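Bumping with the actual sequence this time:
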Amino acid sequence: MNRSSMNRITMGLSDTAKKREIAGPVTGILIVLLAVLMMFGSFCVCVADEQSVAYHGIILNAAALITGIITLVIWRRPVLKEERQGEVLVKETKVPLMLGCIFTAAGECLLFAASCMAILDKTESCYGFGVFGMALLLFSCWMLLDYRHRRIAFDENGNITYSDFTGRLRSYHYSQIGRMRLWLPTGSVRLTDSRGKRLFSFEGNMKHSQELLEHLLDWNVELAVRPEEGGGVCSAFGANEMDTAEHRHVKGIRLGAWALLAVIAAGCVMSVTLLVRFMALKYMLLLFAGLPLLMFFYYLLFPQVLIWSGMPRYASEAFKRNHAAVPSAYLILVWLVLLFFMTASESLFAVADGWKMFGFSVLIAAVLVISCLLRMPGVMRRAGNIAVLCVCAISLCYSLAYSIDLAFSGPAEHYAAQIMGTRVGEEDGSMHYHVSVMLEDGKILELKVSDEIYELAQSDAALRVCQRSGVFGIRLVDLHK
């Protein structure tokens, strides 16, 4: 490594040192403060109204409090001696930092919603928001700690110091490295000893990873590329050229993905505007939710070519020519479908068994993800590709679960409604009316109703509960005259 290269790296480290020191403590402090405030609010509700669900809010926010404290404790570990001297070459980009901040904000919002649900004495919603919120907080803390701690320092004598995301340090000499394996097209480099035991790894999108790879090759460390391909350093973060029938028709497959997206969008619009006049509502909703599923079937046909995420930054032109990305507009379409069904679950038929619906949705998402992973080539199983696949499956699973449950539900059961309470809320300048009824099993369910039904409930008029049981006994409930 020459002197100019070392000076450039030293300047880069000094410019980002303050940013790397601030993000973690601020995140940990925010998590702790918000968790304490929400725990105090839930405790006040417990004392004043004796609502048992408020205790659940205390438990959830106590977990968030512990997460924030752990983040603060681990973050304050001392930095590497070599980093202060400007010898750290390989470190994460700002992507984990941005992801950590985004998921922290999202997780805190979900935990705040869980606290509100606890105050309103809604157990299922409380735990639903809480579980997702804690998952996002744990992921955000992992991302921030990974950005802060994961780095590799080495010198000209072949001494290597590796720090994982917890700050644990491990030191090696290049003579201990038996082989390094580079996986294409992800650019992930895994180093093992002579017995095949893993030492550490780094990715091609990390800063200055190319310099470390060049030094390892200069130290005559054996390089194995998967899949096999000649080339050396220039090909290390480059192509995954294949000569298969799918790759020879990549242009047609790429065009077919966009054409299929157009068909899905047109079909969704037609199903809610035209076809609703000619078919039953439950079958129209099943068609509306099932159309986006065609993209998953399309992927299962061409897994060697299609990529769920965008092209890797380090991919070669040959790799880009031989592969096609699933249109990013597909994810937007899936989110719009999800928004439609979230509204439908309030306005059409309310879900009485939230946990069963949650389990059914998870089952559908798991089937979609696992089926795609089984067809996905090993070299394509990079984190970004799998992450986008999971987001698409999770966004689609609730729409499919709700529509399938409604389509395969049995005959409607009607019985006299026992009104337990009413309330009026205002949102976006419009009034929303809610009526709480007791179901046959004694469960109290709040339904979003029209102003007419609300006035009838206020005047103690006779109302009837319409209940349908579908897949796994998941009940869908409506209230009418």
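The tokens above came from a reply further down the thread. The two ends are 81 Å apart (CA to CA).
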